[in-house]
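User: Look at the shape:
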Amino acid sequence: MPPKDYQAEKEKCKRFLQEFYTEDDLGKKVFKYGAQLVAVAHREQVLLVVDLDDVAEEDPELVESVCENTRRYTGLFADAVHELLPEYREREVVAKDSLDVYIEHRLMMEQRARDPNDTRDPRNQYPHELMRRFELYFKPPSSAKPRVVRDVKADSIGKLVTVRGIVTRATEVKPMMVVATYTCDQCGAETYQPIQSATFMPLIMCPSQECVTNKSGGRLYLQTRGSKFVKFQELRIQEHSDQVPVGNIPRSMTVMVRGENTRLAQPGDHVAVSGIFLPLLRSGFRQAVQGLLSETYLEAHRITMMNKTEDDELGTEELSEEELRQITEEDFYEKLASSIAPEIYGHEDVKKALLLLLVGGVQQAPKGMKIRGTINICLMGDPGVAKSQLLSYIDRLAPRSEFPPSRLSLRHARLSDCTHSPPLPQASTRRAGARRGWA
């Protein structure tokens, strides 16, 4: 297979962003991505989503390449957008942040003091990540089928995959450094270090031509004000209970979320996450200890909520006369209770308790303090009296329920434990149903 010409691929991306259009009801052409580029150029929009169904209409081969090598084509599309923005800028941007003022001041000082024929070290030039003020993500094609967590394996490394599951952990949103800016204490030159992984080794010695020629040994100091940070959040998704084979425990996957995709999901939400399946790169002693094995994570491009809204769950349509007549009957409460797990005979009182579990509970917020109003239930009894079957039925019926089944051993006690995640030492997780000690 001949090597790909990525410069030609970038021209394809640029041509698609410029020429793709749809027609409205009046038959007028609407340039979908051209309008978004104008909004991005004027700082009115940050998120730019490329729908791969739109790309498939123009170039199906490009869609296949994007799905197979998503990380590379994310950079190609971002470079294409960065080059097209000056053409779509109709006015000067008024809303500027501190980083804009910082860069403009540095460019003005360079134009005054620097010789135009002088060559600079690549590390002393402004990286593209520092100059961009937008985020680019892909929306997977509609033909791509969502996968189960246990089906995402090594053959999916670097590809665009969609995984469904329930969010079990969501860390706080914290700033993550994308570009580190250093200043030399001898020559005053600035050095930029793009960061591609969760950890990095800070630069120490100045690589500028002046320090190398004079052998002054200038040391670099990190400038937080000139560095670029983005919002970062880590999610943990787990398989649904109906996706777990009998006799197995649910598997989990780490999801790294950045920028505008943060704060979209909370623990307990059923989500479909589309992103790039990547290995977790480590450096130094950790990599030596880790050996040939590598942890993996999903770099999120799109998070879709699978939860039903409150109106969908309750139903907004009006009740018919037959339904109103059934509600007014005296034995309506018993009928509803008996409809829970009808294949299990008896247990009327337990089924009534489960019915109240489904429809009871309210959100409470006294004096601004939010108190969880959901109800928890614990069934205890002799083995073989359908405790797990009843709770499994409720778990399938309620969209935000959580049921830890005891499939491994009945002798272990169900407690809760607090663990620390290695990538984020300060983030702790409380898990229900952890097995510690003996009953």
About this structure: The CA atoms of residues 42 and 92 lie 8 Å apart. Confidence is low (pLDDT under 50) at residues 309-315, 408-416, 432-439.
